[in-house]
Structures are given as structure tokens and as C-alpha cells.
Amino acid sequence: MSDFDLVLRGRVVLTDREVEGGFVAVRDGKVALVGEGSAPAARERHDLGAALILPGAVDAQVHSLSQKGAEGFAASTAAAAAGGVTTIVDMPYDEGNLVCSAEAVRRKAAEAEAEARVDVALYGTVDPTEGPVRVAEQAEAGVAAFKFSTFGTHPTRFPRIPPALLMACFAEVAKTGLAAGVHNEDDAFVREAVAAVEAAGITDWRAHGLSRPPMTEILAMLQIYETGAATGCPAHVVHCSLGRGYEIASRYRAEGHHATAECCIHYLTLDEENDVARLGGKAKINPPIRPRAEVETLWRHVAAGNISMVSTDHVSWSEDRKTDPEMLKNASGVPGLEVMVPLFVKGALERGISLTWAARLMADNPARHFRLDHAKGGIAAGRDADLTVLEPVARVYDAAASRHSLAGWSPYDGIELPWTTAATWLRGQQVFDGTSVCAAPGTGTFVRPERPLGLRKAVH
Predict the structure, then answer these.
(1) Tens of pLDDT along 400-444?
(2) What are the Cα distances from residue 34, in Å, to 31, 355, 398?
(3) Which value, to the nearest 10 degrees, does the dihedral of the CA atoms of residues 10, 349, 13, 120 take?
(4) Residue 104 belongs to what H/E stretch?
(5) Looking at the DSSP assignment, which residues form a beta bridge with residue 149?
């Protein structure tokens, strides 16, 4: 009788190398052995030929509950499973429920345990009227990080945290050993730019980029990293669209500070002059999609190791909230869970970038950042057997035809993906078979950081 429950054989992508003709052996839901050559026997075995075997992705930024009745954990995690994402880190800005107390964390964790098809970690935040008094209790309840914003989208659901309060919050988060992630747009600058665009009568696709010029990001990033440096709190920028931003983050790390920066897959895929011009509101995202030259600059930062992790910033807005002809009236954000991994693989291979960056930026680094690396992250003995298989079969993505995208639209519609998700395993259990999501609601669990907490070296 075999010692292993599952063996996958194919092109195994690790964080430091690719193993042609490699294998991953699984026992009791954990990776038990990684090797090359002749694979051991197992109760279930898949010889996958030229297919890629990647670690299940840890999506660092998901908004499952931003619009009541539009998605929820059952739907978002179905799209995740179909895209090779085995853990989502969900944001705290839920419609009707700002996750800013231990009670709110426990309530949301219970909802995730009942509905999710893959594993879920949670961000916490603060109510600006309370300040940081509930930071410690949320850490005790199991949040994996804290989220703040230098820009106010909504006064209660997505509030701005002004500079003095942000510093007080960072000081409290530093005591927990967790990271403080911040939405990086300077509030005053954005509001002045929006007013200028409106005064000029610009309402088409150009309005969004003009209302959020690059300096709105750069000023906010400097505030965030200086606040981290002053408090000793790990400072994380949750989405950066500019090469200059990654240069700034790298400089702070060189000075010894915990300064990380996340790149969303849309900044590596879409551009302003082609995609935003074509899609209008369906490509409205904060911060904005930038010109093609900036996209290529970001890929150079991937290759240079300056980007800390890649995420989706997934939000599945209903189509009516993304199709107003007046650009600035549309909701901001796009769905992406189903296509992040194939899009990154496509972009990396087109530019000659090693796929080891896929394992690092979409699995290992986010797992370490959120203190989940005792179980999640790259393919390594002792970690959860969270695995995704991509096969070299070209498909044109069409969200409307997808069985897993609740939104029914995507800014990535029409893009040919040369590698597509063929299967996903969560803790050794198959949750996607290439056609159907086979995981029932409740298959996923609420995952929380390893204890004891304490400061660690920042991921790069």
C-alpha cells in the first residue's frame, strides 16, 4: 500500500527553481515530498506531462462583500478555486459591516466557515470615531493584517484615516506584530484634481486618470512609509500602479524599514490608452490604470524583485454599476479571481521572466506577509497541499460564458490565455477539476496568523 494519498507529476514551480519532470506527493492534506524523476506510488496519481504545478495562490486583496446580494463568500471562492487561488485575504469594508471589532471579525469568520469553498483570512480596520482602541482585540480574534486608507471613499464604509490618527493606529498595530496595509491616494490632492476635471467638463474615459495623477499616489506612499518608520510598524501599500512607487519602497527597505508594496494584476495587464479608452467604466479602478509604458516598467520591477506580491483587488460589482457613460460616476474595481494566475503566467513568459516569481509573488510572499506561512505559501514539505495545475491549452477568456464568475463581465474579456487552470487542490482535496468547482460551501476554513506574533524581516 502506498504511503501517499496523492501524487502530481509535471513541471513543478518552486520559489527558487522549476523542476521539469518533478512531482509533489501529498499525505494527510500536507505536502510530504517534492522531488524529480520517478514518482512514488499513491492512492491517487496524475501524470500531467508538460502542465505547470504551482502553489495555490494566496490572493492578498479581495472584496467579497462590498455589494450586498451581488457576491458573497460562496461565489467569490468558487471563482478563486477555478482560478487556482486557494486562500483569499478579504478586506474589511463590507456593505453594512465595517470589520473594526472582535465581534465583527468573529461574525465574518463564521460566515466564511459556512460558505467558503477555499480558505479565507481577514483584514481588520478601525472606526475613525473610536480610533485604535479595538486593534488588539481584532488581532486576538485572528485578523491577518489591518487596512487603512489615506483617501475617503465613504465616510463610514471606507473612511479616510487622517495623518495623526493613522500614526496612532500604526503604533497599536506595531504591538501585534501584524502589518498595516494602506490605500495610497492623497485625499486633498485627489479632491482638487476631481474638481478640476469636472470644471473642465471632461466626462469620458480620460476623466479618471486625470482626477488621480501619479503624484496623488507618490505623496500618499511617502506618508505611509514615514509613518511606518516612525512607529516601527510594518507598512504595506496595498496597490501601486507606478514604477516610482516601487523604487520608493525599495529605498525604505534598504534603510532597514518594513516597507512592502503590492501590485494588482490589472496594472500588469491593462493600459490606459487602449483598455480604459475601450472599456470606460469597466476599467475604472483606484488608483487608475496607467499608460502602457508604465505597465512595462512594472514588469521590469517584477524581474528586479522590487514588487512584494501580486493580487487581484477583486470586487464583483454588478454591471449596472460599471457602465455609466460619465466615467467618474462608476464604481471602482474589477473582478479578477478567476484569471490572476493565468494572466501572470502569460505576462511573465512573454517577457522571459522566470515563473519562480509566480510562486513567490502569488503564494510564498503573501503567506509570509500575513503570517500564514506555517501552512500556506510555496510548495514545501509540511505546508498545506494547496496546488494549482495550468495546462498549455489556449483559451479566450469570456466572463459571460464562465460558470464561475458571478459578475458576468470582465475587463479581461477577449484576452487569449495560453495557459489555463486545469485543476486546483486545497489541503489535498480537489476543489476544481478544470470544468466544475467540486468544493461545496463550507469546504474552506478561516485561517489565522501563526502565534506568537512578533516583528519579522519584510518580504521583498
Answers:
(1) 999 888 889 999 999 999 999 999 999 999 999 999 999 999 999
(2) 8, 17, 35
(3) -110
(4) helix 102-115
(5) 183
